[in-house]
What does this fold into?
Amino acid sequence: MEPFSTTESQAGASQEWAKSPSPDNIIILAQDLWKTYDMEAIQVNALCGVTFSIVRGEYVAIMGPSGSGKSTLMNLIGCLDRPTSGAVIVQSRNLAEMTPLELARYRRQTVGMVFQAFNLLPRMTLEENVELPMRLAEVSRPERAARVREALERVHLEKRLTHRPGELSGGEQQRASLARALVNRPQILLADEPTGNLDSSTSDEILHLLREINQSLGVTMVMVTHERRLAEQFADRIAVMSDGKLTSDGAEA
Ligand SMILES: Nc1ncnc2c1ncn2[C@@H]1O[C@H](COP(=O)(O)OP(=O)(O)OP(=O)(O)O)[C@@H](O)[C@H]1O
Ligand SMILES: [Mg+2]
It folds into this structure.
């Protein structure tokens, strides 16, 4: 079976090269991002001018108090939402300038997302849950079956193909959602509190897996977490948000 392929730009690039912060290596660039929610009586400024860049192949943790704008930033990078002003540029493309078709491809193939809630469909088996994103992409049936197996092997769930989410532990469910996020071979994985619902040893296991995926496939990892211990152990750098602003990008001075 063909292993998870790396993209052309990742192939042959050593991790050292991949992480040097030259403009050519920046995969995600957030430029002066503002996000304002208009509520009935008030406006909520969820992001107030965030500028942030991430290099291809990096593993970045984002920390900060509840309500500081971490999920808002992740949703803008994943293009689940649009900024009030500012730009998100991924692989040199401004998301705001993409056609609907390009955006659909971007959401399906360039980024994978995992969340605190595993968001698996309860009536479907594990195999069907993981296959789902590929039904929307242009992937043939035999190729889909091979990729499901490969993604589930990667998260060590190949023996649970016919289980439904309710027949899995929390850690297994998160591993399944990780397999689902990876099955279209994204270059970027966005993980918003992926261990928020898990105990500490299961959290370690999930983050080991994320690190393995980051290192072996070169997938750029952006993870929100409240757990400093995990961020320090696994991430290349820790960015910190407060009141809608980036107070530290975690890069060494
Ligand atoms: N859809 C929305 N409508 C109005 N306000 C929102 C909306 N989504 C988020 N906010 C507000 O924007 C701010 C930032 O929210 P966000 O979810 O980004 O915080 P967070 O840092 O992810 O917090 P947590 O750690 O609790 O997940 C909060 O004050 C929140 O109440
Ligand atoms: Mg959040």
